[in-house]
C-alpha cells in the first residue's frame, strides 16, 4: 500500500505591516537575500522590503523577474544568485514570480522565502512550481524535496491589492475541497504522485471551504475599502495556507486539469487569472461527477455571487467550437494531468460534454436567480 504523506512550509506568518519587521523572520535563513520581483511589484513593495532589510543590517540585492516562469528565466536568475553570493532567495509578488523563486532556490541549493503581494492563488506554500514555455504554454510541474522555508504575508499590502486578485484566490481556494474529496473517494494520490493524501489535508481543505462561505463577501467589500479586517485576514489565510496545504496534502483532480487544458488555445482566455479559469473548471468537475442540483447550485451559485466566471462567455470562449473544446479536453486527459486522480475513468468526449454542461448549467442558474 502506498504511504500517506503530509508536507508543509517550515513557517507561516501574516500580519499588518509585516514588511517593516521582515528581517526578524528572514535572519535565520540568511543575511544576503536576493529579492525576485517584477517591475510593478518592485515599485509597490520591493523597494520598501529592500530598505527594511537594509536598515536592519541585512545585505539584500534584487533581480527583476521577466514575467514567465520558464526554464530560460529560472536559469538566468539562478546564475545571478550564484555569482552574487546570495544565501537566501525571496520571491516577492504573484504566482509565476513565486514559482520562479522556488525553482531558483532549488537550483542554487538555497533556502527560499515567499512574500506574496496578492492572495490570488494557493501556490505560495507548495513544494512545486508550475513551469511554462517562454511563450506561456503549460510545460510541466517541478517538484522539490521540501516546501518553502518561510511564507510571509503583509496584510496591508493585500488590502491595497486589486480586488480582482482576492476574488481570483477565492476561486482557486474553492476548488481545494471539491478536488480533495474526489481524490479521497478514489483513494488516489497526491498531485506529485508520490503518496496518498492525508486526512489532515482533507480536513484543511474542508476548513478552507467553510471559511470562504463565511467571510468571502465581507472580505471583498473590505478589500474595496482597503481595510485590514478580520474577514480579510481570514480569507488571506484560507486562500494561502488552508488552500495550499489542502491541495498539496489532499490532492488535485479535474478542476486543475481543465485549467491546464485551456493552455491548448490562444486568445483572450489568457487574460483571465488562474483562479478565474479554475472557477469555470469547478463547474466542469461537478458535471463530470454528476452533482445534484443542490450541490451544483451551492458551488456555482457561490462563484456567481462573488463575481467569478462560470460560463464560456465569461472566460472569453463564447466562440469556441467542438474542435477547440476537444483540444482542451485532450490536454486535460493527458497522462501527466491530475484528472486521472478522479474516481472512475473519463474520456476526451466526457470532458467535452462536461464543459458544455457546465456552461449550460451556469447560464440556467443565472436566469433562475436573476444574476446578470
UniProtKB/TrEMBL annotation:
Oxidoreductase as a keyword of this entry, yes or no, is: yes
UniProt EC number: 1.1.1.6
Residues noted as binding NAD(+) in the record, renumbered to the chain: 38, 95-99, 117-120, 132
Q: What class of enzyme is it?
A: oxidoreductase
- Domain (Alcohol dehydrogenase iron-type/glycerol dehydrogenase GldA): give its ranges: 9-155
What gene name is given for the protein in this entry? gldA
Q: Which GO terms describe its cellular component?
A: cytosol
- Entry binding sites for glycerol: 122, 172, 256, 274
The domain of life is Bacteria
**Can you state which reaction this protein catalyses?**
glycerol + NAD(+) = dihydroxyacetone + NADH + H(+)
Q: Does the keyword tRNA processing apply?
A: no
A GO MF annotation of the entry reads:
metal ion binding
Which positions in this protein are listed as binding Zn(2+)?
Answer: 274
Which free-text remark accompanies the cofactor? Binds 1 zinc ion per subunit.
Q: In which pathway does it act?
A: Polyol metabolism; glycerol fermentation; glycerone phosphate from glycerol (oxidative route): step 1/2
UniProt keyword terms in alphabetical order: Metal-binding, NAD, Oxidoreductase, Zinc
**InterPro entries noted in UniProt:** ADH_Fe/GldA, Glycerol_DH
- Its recorded name reads Glycerol dehydrogenase
Cofactor(s) essential for the protein: Zn(2+)
